[in-house]
């Protein structure tokens, strides 16, 4: 069997716009180290979009966040001191480690209006580096390895795939790839990893005779090497890697230890996690148990 299961994106209202939440899911918490996967948009914001649409300062531990856009732009600020606007095809990779806070705001879109479309993913850190120092890196679109062929575009965001290796430093074996296929174009799914998934961000594709539409993730069986054929012009994300072991997730905190999550909750409530530099006048309070849907940024 090629496809282990299909995970549908579930719509979640974040107060200003909706996202499609794919991971975690009740029947599949992780794919490799990927523990969280949100599809943002596509959505068109009018000029003067309310500030409630922004993701106010909030904390993370034990993970790396990856923001990747197809359209629009987001302004990132964090407690380490980084201030970086991300645009389509670029990568913002933030490692929370022992603790970081950040905000994601729609400053330019607020002024002019515009579209937003992208993916927010979280990668759980291996236990040996869960408490690493927090950090942030940004890569422009032309810094990521890519390959184009007739009707096919491949960009490797992180890890190695299709003979290409991203400059993004990862803490465990993983891969994350952006594919664009014209209608009728076929390509194989890359191998070399024990856990892999195919997510359709736009359009429709066929895998082993089954159709998958935008908002659906196909988790592949171990060792399966199916082809992906675009039924219409499509954007597909490939992701996965090697498992890092079970993880607890509470709100924006990820850890192998429940006690560590309780400590992070206490630290945020007591103000012991620094707020983002240049964006420290508001924050998202610690929610009551049970927590609401995790912040996507």
TrEMBL record:
Transmembrane feature ranges: none
Domain (Pirin N-terminal): residue spans on this chain: 18-123
Residues annotated to bind Fe cation: 58, 60, 102, 104
Residue span(s) of domain Pirin C-terminal: 176-273
Pfam families noted in UniProt: Pirin (PF02678), Pirin_C (PF05726)
Source organism, top-level taxon: Bacteria
Cofactors required: Fe cation
CDD domains with a match to the protein in the record: cupin_pirin_C (cd02247), cupin_pirin_N (cd02909)
Cofactor note: Binds 1 Fe cation per subunit.
UniProt keyword terms in alphabetical order: Iron, Metal-binding
Example of a GO MF term: metal ion binding
Family: Belongs to the pirin family.
Designated name of the protein: Pirin-like protein
Species this chain originates from: Steroidobacter agaridevorans
